[in-house]
Amino acid sequence: MSVQCAVHICAVAVLFSVALCSDTTPSVKDHQHVKELFVAVGSAVDLPCGDQGDVEVQWKRDGTPLTTGAILSISNVSMEDGGTYTCHNLKKDLLWTLSLRPGYPPAHPGIHCWSPSYPNKAMCSWSEGPEPLLPTNYTATYWIGRCHAVGQCGVGAPQEATVKYVCQPVPGLSRQCALENLQLFSLDPYLLNLTSTNPLGSVSTVFSFILEDIVKPDPPVNVRVTVGAARQLSVEWAPPPTWPNPTIFPLVYDVRYYHGSQESARRLNQYESERMVLKGLRPSSTYFVQVSARDQLVGQSSDWSQPVKATVPAQ
């Protein structure tokens, strides 16, 4: 990786080898290096025609003629300026090719952590704002520590006395990772250090949490609603398969049901079993039923399961 400084901004250029075929005369090289130039949106950049110096050249973007001159100046780079730039001599021979890729340096992301498989595993995900629009790599580590001051979360923790773990990437999800080897009921919070890196820069963000505060099971599964006795519906479900041990860490369940709109939903709380009966329902009405789960002692409720509908028979 090299750094090429234009008149107005320092831009990062990455060289990669590309075979560029051209119908030029034999005096022009058949193979050239294409330079990939990453620039920040809103910045200014000057593009020289390789090592041609002050030679007058014709500039094109994606094959469309732009202007002539030894240097192509862009005063306020936008996403629309992205593309393949070429410069040509007066004989229209290709002299240089450059791929301009506008984007943004990484910003401090919003981080969200939850534990759907307490106590075995927690998950963290993050979102960028604005989107970098460039290839961005993420690395995350975590450990038990302290936030010493606002804006200095984790600063000053003795590195040699701290055991750090790598937050494992989740296949297919570039902005999510899994935390394992977790300690229950720690008086100190966990600290997650997320570093975002792309060709325009790097930024690190530290997020703190208490494990028991972020316990959130996945929704219950296999929700079934069947017609029972008069004006009744029987509801059954199973615990989420991601919850590792319902016997040692029991779940309680909430049930909500409605007919018409969700705004009219009624909620029934704290069922320890995996079945219940809805009573006193309206005949000939279709009801939608959902179930959520939460650990009996810590954390928060899961999202609601997908609605399952059933119709109460006419009397």
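Second entry:
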Amino acid sequence: MPGEVQVKKASEINAPTGAQTEGMIRMNAITDMSDQICGTVMIAKPHTASAIHHHGEEDTIVYAAKGHGTIVSGPNGSKRQDLGPGDFALIPAYAQHQEVNDSGEDIVWIITRGGRNPIVENLDGWGES
């Protein structure tokens, strides 16, 4: 028998929750509701960067809802990929990366991960585990 449809209202998604990385505000939206998927909202304030991190065994899809930001990845952070409103990115499981907001405006990204709850493993630097 199928499960019930569940809705999380915007008014319920308004405080930092869940795993955090420095420089980013992460708010749980759809978490602990499905064994296979979860969703969060990430806000990066102007001129901030997250810690270098990965999301463990979870593949991650990013949808850029507002602002212009960058995902830094690759060996020693050698690759920079810019995202603007409407862009998507796929971050594979265990891929080390960093979110960067070099702009003067907030960026808002909608994050979907392949797991019941979001995993964030902060690292001391590139290549750490």
